[in-house]
Write a structure and sequence with these properties.
With 543 residues, the chain is α+β, with helices and mostly antiparallel strands. 30% of the residues lie in helices and 25% in strands. Helix 7 (136-149) runs antiparallel to helix 8 and helix 8 packs parallel to helix 10.
Length: 543
């Protein structure tokens, strides 16, 4: 029976930070969504697809026939906005019918027009090349009165966008800071506006763009940049062209707002082994570009601490910038590659820092295992059989309900030093039955594992199924490069009929072991384990 045993890899790949962003926007994935959206005949989807592709300076396909044949409702100003702006983005204005001009003019003539309607009307006229027909002074007064009735973040975003076009950017500069303070905070880590990504993208992009146009310093504090950046990253799994376009708008605005928020992520693997002693990190802005004015020698591993005992293993070690890859930095950990375990590495880029948990993966081996069969009451010395890895027992072992099976072994690393692993199991499984029993082993003070299995007490766990059983040892650890699954051979068990399990036998293991019968670990059967191990750790077998 050939099976694979894999350890549960603990939080060795996670990074925790209050300053540096832990991710970037996957621009290539978003571009794929937008390119697929361009094929749509839905005018809203087409508009956002074109808008996003324009943001990426990507090729705009010929969609004039789609725009020409699109059916629309002249009373729906948002639909007309999508149609005319899609035509403007794709250079298909000549495909539009003259009647689309009536929709925005009717909105502007209405006394009860809303701020969103005014925004869509003005930007429809702009897309049609009509310029600003909305008088700056009177319109700004009107917008201010409308804001007094509804000062939602969305309305502020629309007004800021209108001011970009009609020439009241100075008003935006005066009111942007207070508008930004209206953002909602989540868990002290991220900021966003009521209305989610659409409103957050609108406010951020218009404010940042306006201040750049005015030549003024950004109104966003460094903390606000990182918290808005954290929100943008939380939305990076968008799947629609609309979501992709809005995400790109917000991410590009924040990435271009200097000093830009810094992102540090693992580029590939999150561990080292005895054969591989370095880890690569990407140090970029929110959309994967190099950080302006960041010098290579400013990317430093400030400290490295082993999580098991808080021992400091490195201090102020510069990372090396990879040749021809300005965003890739290499951390060399050759000094600790023989000390397997989990480590916390504090990385800094300029004045910002973040903590990363990495694993130094070791190699484990068991040169031999002693398997003994003896009486439960210890009246006779057990018969010991030694099997060397990766061999199997040369003959089937026999044991009945008055006997016990003992296993004794030591786990060592590549340098032959005894090590303790997080997962050490002895598995007994009938040859032709789906049930099995898994027993948890622990080492003594010297690091030697010894397990005693009372055959009579095993009966219930194996459903009183006697006969040939496969005997295996399974070893794993979150800091081990490859787990060990060693099938030792066959063990023939003879359970007496009507045997009362445990009625006249020693406990299955030692008096300190507690039965966890019935608990399932992955696809594992009943487990018996010492309480201090089983209750404090997660164990999982994956077949």
């Amino acid at each position: 029976m050939s099976r694979c045993f894999l350890p549960l890899l603990l939080l060795s790949v996670l990074a925790v930070s209050n300053a540096i962003l832990q991710g970037t926007v996957d621009v290539k994935r978003l571009q794929g969504i937008l390119e697929e959206g361009v094929k749509s005949k839905d005018i809203s989807t087409l508009y956002y697809s074109l808008k996003g592709l324009k943001q990426l300076n990507a090729k705009i396909p010929d969609v004039c026939d789609v725009i020409k044949n699109t059916k629309y409702d002249l009373k729906n100003i948002e639909q007309i906005f999508h149609l005319t702006n899609a035509a403007d983005l794709s250079g298909c204005q000549n495909s539009l019918k003259p009647d689309v001009l009536s929709a925005p003019t009717q909105v502007l003539d209405k006394k009860d027009a809303t701020i969103p309607d005014l925004y869509h009307a003005v930007y429809t006229l702009k897309a049609l090349g009509k310029g600003s027909v909305y008088d700056k002074e009177d319109s700004l007064k009107n917008l201010i009165q409308l804001l007094k009735k509804d000062d939602s973040p969305a309305n502020y975003g629309y007004v800021f966008a209108l001011c970009e076009h009609i020439g009241c950017a100075a008003w935006t500069a005066t009111h942007a800071e207070s508008a930004l303070l209206a953002a909602d905070e989540t868990d002290g880590r991220s900021l966003h506006f009521d209305g989610g990504l659409p409103v957050t993208s609108l406010v951020l992009s218009t404010v940042i763009r306006t201040f750049k146009t005015l030549g003024k310093p950004s109104p966003l504090s460094m903390e606000q940049r990182y918290k808005f950046g954290a929100y943008v990253l939380s939305r990076r799994s968008v799947t629609s062209p609309r979501g992709a376009a809005l995400l790109l708008d917000a991410a590009a605005a924040l990435a271009g707002d200097q000093p830009t928020p810094i992102s540090i992520v693992f580029k590939d693997k999150k561990f080292i082994t005895s054969d591989s002693d370095s880890i690569e990190f990407s140090v970029t802005d929110l959309i994967g570009r190099p950080i302006p004015n960041l010098k290579p020698d400013e990317v430093i591993a400030q400290s490295g601490t082993r999580l098991a005992d808080d021992v400091v293993v490195l201090s102020k070690q510069p990372l090396t910038q990879k040749s021809n890859e300005p965003t890739t930095f290499i951390l060399n950990l050759s000094k600790i590659k023989s000390q397997h375990g989990l480590y916390k590495i504090s990385l800094s880029a300029g004045t910002k820092s973040a903590n990363f948990n990495i694993a130094v993966l070791g190699e484990i081996q068991v040169s031999s295992i002693e398997v003994g069969i003896g009486d439960v009451d210890g009246t006779t010395s057990p018969k010991i059989t030694t099997v060397t890895y990766p061999n199997r027992l040369t003959e089937k072992l026999q044991a009945d309900h008055l006997q016990k099976v003992t296993l004794k072994f030591t786990v060592r690393d590549k340098w032959n030093k005894p090590v303790v692993v997080q997962q050490a199991f002895v598995r007994i499984a009938p040859a032709n039955a789906p049930h099995e029993a898994i027993y948890v082993a622990e080492p003594d003070a010297a690091g030697t594992y010894k397990v005693e299995l009372n055959v009579g007490a095993m009966s219930a766990h194996l459903r009183h199924s006697g006969g040939a059983h496969e005997l295996s040892v399974l070893l794993g650890d979150s800091a081990v490069a490859a787990p060990l699954a060693w099938t030792l051979g066959d063990l023939v068990l003879n359970f007496a009929r009507n045997h009362a399990v445990g009625a006249f036998a020693l406990p299955l293991l030692s008096p300190r072991w507690t039965s966890l019968e019935g608990q399932r670990l992955g696809r594992v059967g009943p487990v018996l384990a010492r309480g201090r191990l089983s209750m404090g750790r997660q164990h999982r077998l994956v077949y």
